[in-house]
Amino acid sequence: MIRYLILLFIFTLSLYAQIDKDELDKLNVEALLIKELTTGEVIYSKEALKEVKPASLTKIMTAILAIEQQDLMTPVTITKEMIQVEPTKAGYKEGEIILLGDLIKAAMIKSDNDAAMAVAIAVGGNMAHFVEMMNQKAELIGMNDTHFTNPCGFDIGEHHSTPIDLLKLAEYAIQNPLFNDITRQNQHIYYSLNTNRKFVAKTHNHLLNRYEYAVGVKTGYTSKAGPCFIARAKKGDNDCLIIMLNSKENRWTIAQQIFEQVFQPAIDLWEKV
Predict the structure, then answer these.
(1) Which of 82, 85, 127, 228 has its CB 3.0 to 4.6 Å from that of 220, i.e. a possible disulfide?
(2) What is the rounded distance in angstroms from the CA atom of residue 63 to the CA atom of residue 6?
């Protein structure tokens, strides 16, 4: 038992000792958080409290609210308001009927804005009420410096968050198994119920295609927010979240390198014991 506790203590120390904080400090990113979920430790933090534009990371809130509020087999009739958005769209037509679950997957996997709008109006009754629900949920889970104005992530009005709030949102959402199942999918194929038109939602999260331990979560981009990424990877008993905002670096390469720094030392240590 004593030997086990000593090994566990050394394991934890080695995990954090291998994070190259000096190199992370040099990265051209506006904000960066790394949390090891197994231990609950934030092992790197840069500008955690800075006000940022969350872009399509917003859709995490949209998706988790819908998953919690309504049966995913609910048919949703597409209205004119739902499809009056740009730029990323599935291309629904007014009057088409799509399952709510398919809309959620399209919003999360491909980041389709018409899908996110359809989810919001279907669940909230109208967009304004759904935005109220988003802000109420944000307050409930401790996102004290976040304000949502829309379900898509558009830079409209006072739509803003902070890296630490986005970390809270991601941690909350990944407690839901269905949410996790959606975010790890490379693509989702689905059909309109009344026209049988085929839709293909392919992920923008290229880390899923190149790193075997990646399991989500969401990408985002607007001209004001820049390239954003909430990444999660699991390897053995280790589980790690990265919050990356306004990155001028290659998001996929940097995230993979960070995950390998977090995961590899523990493997090496156990092999030597």
Answers:
(1) 228
(2) 42
> Is residue 267 predicted with pLDDT exceeding 60?
no
Rounded to two decimals, the pTM is: 0.91
The two tokens of residue 81 are 């308001």
Hey, which residues does 161 pair with through a beta bridge? 52
State the pLDDT at residue 17.
43
Strand partners of residue 203: none
- 270 band by pLDDT with thresholds 50, 70 and 90: very low
| Residue whose C-alpha is closest to residue 130's, from 56, 62, 75 | 62
User: CA-based angle 124:226:144, to the nearest 5?
Assistant: 50
Strand order in the sheet with 226-235: 41-46, 29-36, 238-247, 226-235, 214-222
Rounded Cα–Cα distance for residues 131 and 124 (Å): 8
Question: Could you give the CA distance from residue 233 to residue 52 in angstroms, rounded to a whole number?
Answer: 24
For the segment 69-128, what is each residue's pLDDT rounded down to a tens digit?
889 999 999 999 999 998 899 999 999 999 999 999 999 999 999 999 999 999 999 999
DSSP helix/strand/coil, 59: helix
For 162, counting Cβ atoms within 10 Å of its Cβ (0-12 exposed, 13-18 middle, 19+ buried), the class is buried
pLDDT confidence of residue 265: 58
Cα-to-chain-centroid distance, residue 221: 12
Instruction: Annotate 182-213 with b (16+ C-beta within 10 A) or e (fewer).
Output: bbbbeebebebeeeeeebebebebbbbeebeb
Positions marked active-site: 56, 59, 111
DSSP 208-236: HHH-TTEEEEEEEEETTTEEEEEEEEEET
